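Review form for a predicted model. The reviewer records the input and the model, then writes brief findings.
Reviewer: anonymous (R2)
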Amino acid sequence: MSDIKNSVLPDIIEPMSNAIHQNIPETARQTDGALSTVVGFFNNVVLYPVKKANLTFRYKLEAFEDDLKDKIKNIPEENLQVPPVKIAGPVLEALRYAYDETELREMYEEMLATAMDNRKVQQVHRSYVDAVRQMEPLDARVLCRINDYNKITTSHVKLYLEESQQQYYINAMPYHYNVALCDLGDPFQISTAISNLLRLGLLISEDGFLKEGVAERIEKEPYVQKRFKLYKKLHGGARISVSEDCDIISLDSYGRYFVDVCMPKKEDEK
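Model under review:
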């Protein structure tokens, strides 16, 4: 098995790399008039990112192979194996379009490294590839943070018209809000990330209630105040309402298995 460590994936990476190197077919023959414009636009603009990804992937594979060698260096020789094609094939195909997104690339690397250890290969479910494929880098950061915390609560903050008990501004605040996540990115995008992770089955949500005094503290948080001041300038004014109900967000069993296989290991976990 020493040859595997030297070339990592001799039976998979090399053939796929060669296939990627093949010349992209020439632009379809353009006809006169509008069709010529449409075909030219499609080939030269719409397909440009795909063509570029295909042409540059050969060089990125070399860097990927170096990273993978580092991740498998501690696997005993007797436990090292060529990864199953059902995992390696989809991983390498997905990497073609996600290599430059560090968080996603690292998850693919971890997945493939685990699949190369015959003691752990059964832990790698093929659905993990599809889960990563449907994630944004922010999703990965949010998942990692929630895993570190074990669970978080997300509050339901609304901005009502100042003189109304029923009318509120739609999309004035993100649906899932927790100040502990705000350093990861835009709170609205973080809320979308949580919704996506729930959709993928990596997270679960349970009903909960805020502890006494928490709602008042949330009203004073800088981001909430920033949104409040923005909407207060509108004709109807604004007032903050923080529901006592909240969502308790955590990883379910599928999500924990996914994290164990796909998330980069911390130094004390290696």
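Findings: The first strand starts at residue 151 and ends at 160.
Further findings: The two ends are 22 Å apart (CA to CA).
Recommendation: see findings above.
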